[in-house]
């Protein structure tokens, strides 16, 4: 049985990773409904309802101890610019995958992804 990990805030010089919550929906929709962001992803996010479902699935995985999802937030200004997570967690095997990352186009090739990892 998976043991839920406690959500944490991770903070760097440029980016703050906040525990993902429904409160991030508007910010994620502002930067994340670009079809190009999802072209190589099996589950497409193309509408507000899709983004809401994306968040709900991530939070369900968190409740089941399988993931810790984050909203990627710029420290300067507090704008949500994407999402990332620890996923496929197995605390008993001391394993976690880092990924499920997407970043709004304007912040790609910036410090956001590098610092988040």
Describe this structure in words.
With 117 residues, this protein is α+β, with helices and mostly antiparallel strands. It is 26% helix and 29% strand. It has a five-stranded antiparallel β-sheet with strand order 1-2-3-4-5. The longest helix has 16 residues, at 48-63. The mean pLDDT is 93.
Brief overview, please?
With 117 residues, the protein is α+β, with helices and mostly antiparallel strands.
Could you tell me the strand content as a percent range? 25-35%
Major sheet description: 5 strands, antiparallel
Shape summary = globular
Oligomer state equals: single chain
H/I helix tally: 3
For the biggest β-sheet, the strand order reads 1-2-3-4-5
Q: Which sequence of SSEs, written as H and E, runs from N to C?
A: EEHHEEEH
From the N-terminal CA to the C-terminal CA, the straight-line distance is 27 Å
Radius of gyration: 14 Å
> Which class of secondary structure composition applies to the elements?
alpha+beta
Q: Round the mean pLDDT to the nearest integer and report it.
A: 93
Helix content range: 25-40%
What is the number of strand segments? 5
